[in-house]
Specification:
- By secondary structure, the protein is mainly α.
- The protein has helices at residues 2-12, 17-36, 46-50, 53-66, 75-85, 90-97, 101-126, 139-142, 149-166, 173-193, 197-214, 226-237, 239-256, 264-281, 292-303, 321-329, 331-348, 353-372, 379-407, 411-422.
- It has one domain.
- The longest helix has 29 residues, at 379-407.
- It is globular and about 65 Å long.
Length: 423
């Protein structure tokens, strides 16, 4: 049952929000049962004791909970924000519940299988093939199966990187080329199917990182030229990318000229400017969990009494994760987010090269998407990042355990594990 629920959570981030929510609740209940078993589940704490990421993920949730003591937000908004950041606990939960390399392989297979299912659905919608299980209101207009084109474009870029870097784990030539094919289909979704500009930027970022990893070490000094070159190639090759990125310039110009015309870029710039003012007013401790809406309305009403306040349901974040943490927790909140990213990077660098590179690509995608959206605060995409990182870290940790076992003389057991996994 424990392994079945882990696999359900791993696969659910490619499905509907209802399935994701149900699987998360079941996973938390399972974790509590495992922890209450005490010594009989002692092996579940191995990953938690040897890694920094689960510790930082837990600290994040605790810090937001403590900020209830000084939050300026209504209690329901504050508790709602803490509930959203509760998804960070998915990472230590997965690391605790995945106890062997074989279980990590199963979790990874279900995660990748769910993403393949999602990719095939998006391509089918793109070619006007009916997809009865597509529940998104953007299914017919933007080829998004369960969420928005913004979420799925970012997810597709991440999946392309994961399949590309993990292709070396394929036990035969067929699966090796199948992984490359899925990676190409995922990148096609990013640049051909979807119109999400954040997804385009994330796709360019993970593609640039893959090229950087492929370069010989003596040529990596030229890696600074890779991102702009990739940007130019993608811009000239895909019409949707060119149109959407060109629109950014016109939207920024319209915002600077104060024409009053609302746009995606203009709204973000306004939110970011006001968020910076909120951070400057309370730089040490911030305004507490869930306070962004309250602080934004307060500052804008001081500027213009005619400002119409909006609630957390309409605009609950500034579409920028770093500024959101700064408003809620001050400068220390921004440093906490960087520390969380640093802990992930530190843990990944201790793992085998393919899994480390796949995890670093996910981390880069998360950091880039957080520059233009509140990707960890948002439900669907935030769950995707937490689960993908949890599964990859578990796989890398237990894979490293097997390598250490081989070095210490436990060769027969490692060979048996390899045969079992391939079977």
């Amino acid at each position: 049952m424990r392994l079945a629920l882990v696999c359900l959570v791993a696969a659910s981030v490619g499905l509907s929000m209802a399935i994701i929510s149900i699987s998360k609740v079941l996973l938390v209940v399972t974790l509590l049962v495992v922890l209450l078993r005490g010594n009989r589940a002692a092996s579940s704490g191995a990953a938690l004791q040897h890694m920094w990421t689960p510790l930082l993920a837990t600290v994040v949730v605790l810090v937001f909970a403590v900020s209830l003591l000084w939050t300026s937000a209504p209690l329901d908004n504050a508790l709602g924000a803490i509930g959203k950041y509760g998804k960070f606990l998915l990472i230590p939960a997965l690391l605790a519940l995945i106890q062997t390399r074989r279980e990590a392989v199963y979790a990874l297979i279900f995660f990748l299988g769910g993403q393949i299912f999602l990719l095939l659905g998006s391509w089918a919608l793109h070619f006007h093939v009916p997809v009865p299980w597509a529940t998104s209101n953007m299914a017919t207009t933007a080829s998004a199966v369960f969420s928005s084109y913004l979420d799925q474009s970012i997810m597709s870029a991440v999946v392309a990187a994961v399949f590309w870097h993990l292709r070396t784990f394929a036990p035969n030539r067929f699966l090796f080329y199948a992984a490359i094919t899925v990676s190409a289909l995922a990148l096609g979704c990013v640049f051909v199917v979807f119109t999400g500009r954040t997804g385009h930027v994330v796709g360019i970022a993970v593609l640039s990182l893959a090229i950087f990893f492929a370069l010989p070490k003596r040529y990596r000094f030229a890696s600074l030229l890779v991102p702009p070159l990739v940007l130019v190639v993608v811009f000239l090759s895909f019409d949707k990318v060119a149109q959407r990125l060109s629109a950014v310039k016109s939207e920024v110009v319209a915002y600077s000229a104060k024409t009053g015309q609302e746009s995606s870029s203009g709204t973000r710039l306004k939110f970011w400017t006001t968020s910076g003012e909120a951070i400057s007013q309370k730089p040490l401790m911030g305004s507490g969990a869930g306070s962004w809406v309250t602080e934004y309305n307060r500052i804008e009403q001081l500027k213009s009494p005619l400002h119409q306040s909006f609630g957390a349901q309409s605009h609950g974040n500034p579409h920028q994760e770093f500024l959101l943490w700064g408003v809620q927790l001050g400068v220390g909140g921004i440093l906490l987010l960087f520390s969380f990213f640093g802990a992930i990077l530190f843990d990944l660098r201790k793992m085998d090269r393919p899994i480390a590179r796949a995890g670093q690509s996910v981390l880069l995608a998360l950091a880039v998407s957080c520059l233009f959206n509140s990707s960890l605060y948002d439900a669907y995409i935030g769950d995707f990042f937490c689960v993908s990182l949890g599964v990859l870290l578990a796989y890398g940790f237990h894979g490293r355990e097997v390598t250490l076992g081989q070095h210490s003389g436990d060769v027969q057991h490692a060979k048996y594990e390899d045969r079992l996994i391939k079977t």
